[in-house]
Design brief:
This protein has about 250 residues and is α/β, with parallel strands linked by helices. Helices cover about 25% and strands about 25% of the residues. The structure holds zinc ion (2 copies).
């Protein structure tokens, strides 16, 4: 699998980074996304990646910096790409309704006409492994209120495993989620342990030995964490950058 970091910022634009979106290219089932923040299309254009080639989009949780890019994705698919290929979107319970509400607020009437392609929503439930677009996806419960259950995701394809924390403070479910993964992408919003519902470097670095992922990448960093990113590098962790490409 080839990972391109489309966006690795927090919800506040810290460090001038785009919002969360990870692009993964597999040999077996083509390209898919993990999360689709509002800036996902901008990041695809910068990286020279074709949004029309995406078959599946996995959403960790229903916060705007992780799912609202679906609205612009829809407009691009209809008006620019003239998409015909089906698109599968998998995320927490209520994802289709939240998407429709967001689309109606931002571009009234955008969903009034039948779409020229099949847009299928799949609801994921914590602990229920399932196939989505040829990927094996296991969602895990995490601690991050978003109006619907928030998930960490374990994804298998091409005989490789990628785990993604979504947004969360430390939660024991991250251990089975990322255990032995080829790559664990973990949010690391803060440096110390004071931010509720978000991870700190202090906590994550203490727990990484228990997780035993082969490689770890931190993302979703606040300004306070970004100025300390060298600390994570010295600990052997990859610090995400927009546009970074990594073979998993
Ligand atoms: Zn976020
Ligand atoms: Zn969030």
């Amino acid at each position: 699998m080839k990972l391109t970091v489309i966006g690795c910022g927090d919800a506040f634009g810290s460090g001038g980074r785009l919002q969360t979106c990870l692009h993964l290219e597999t040999k077996s089932v083509g390209a898919f996304l993990i999360d689709c923040g509002a800036t996902a299309l901008i990041g695809h254009q910068r990286a020279g990646l074709d949004p029309g080639a995406i078959r599946t989009i996995l959403i960790s949780h229903l916060h705007g910096d992780h799912f609202s890019g679906l609205v612009w994705w829809l407009l691009h698919a209809v008006h620019v790409a003239k998409r015909k290929a089906p698109l599968e979107i998998a995320g927490p319970a209520g994802i289709e309704q939240r998407f429709r509400q967001a689309a109606e607020v931002l571009f009234p009437g955008a969903l009034n006409k039948p779409l020229p392609f099949a847009m299928r929503f799949i609801e994921l439930g914590a602990g229920r492994q399932r196939e989505v677009g040829g990927l094996t996806v296991t969602p895990f419960e995490v601690s991050h209120p978003s109006g619907s259950p928030s998930h960490a995701l374990r994804i298998e394809a091409d005989g490789r495993t990628v785990a993604f924390s979504g947004d969360t403070e430390w939660h024991e479910s991250l251990v089975p989620c990322a255990q032995g993964a080829d790559l664990f992408v973990c949010e690391c919003y803060s440096y110390d342990g004071k931010t509720r519902y978000h991870m700190s470097w202090e906590k994550l670095s203490a727990e990484l030995p228990r997780i035993g992922a082969r490689r770890v990448m931190i993302t979703h960093m606040s300004a306070a964490m970004l100025v300390r990113q060298d600390m994570a590098r010295r600990a052997g962790v990859i610090v995400a950058e927009d546009g970074m490409v990594l073979e998993v």
